[in-house]
Design a protein that fits this description.
Layout: H1 8-14, H2 18-30, H3 34-47, H4 50-58, H5 62-68, H6 77-87, H7 108-111
Helix pairs in contact: 2-3, 4-6
């Protein structure tokens, strides 16, 4: 039996393409799991300059950026917005297709991976 290859190096290689990185982040958002979105954002950040360079570009403290993207991270709106802009992305709102099943209602704080309050 052939040994499997780790997926992380191939994933990171593909995330260098901005369109694939954007699709990856959108797919993570659709899962409605803030931790999954932060993991995806951490992967994209790693590919696009690493935490140190990205922190400077986003005008964020490097340690704060690591903490923000950790498993227990809960970034504030301004920090998330600055990070996405430094990566060349922005948040948008889209209309949910009519054929999609409505999701159970959750509080805004639980539904988005950042503090708005």
């Amino acid at each position: 039996m052939r040994a499997s290859k780790p997926y992380q190096p191939e994933l990171l290689k593909r995330l260098r393409a901005p369109r694939l990185a954007a699709a990856y982040l959108n797919a993570a958002l659709e899962e409605d799991d803030p931790k999954l979105f932060l993991l995806a954002l951490r992967n994209v950040a790693e590919v696009h300059g690493g935490m140190g360079q990205l922190a400077g570009k986003a005008k964020l403290n490097r340690e704060s950026l690591y903490r923000m993207l950790s498993d227990r991270g809960n970034p504030e709106w301004q920090s998330l917005d600055a990070l996405l802009h430094a990566l060349g992305f922005r948040l948008t709102v889209a209309i949910q297709p009519r054929s999609a099943k409505p999701r159970p209602r959750r509080s805004v704080r639980a539904a988005v991976p950042h503090s708005v309050a």
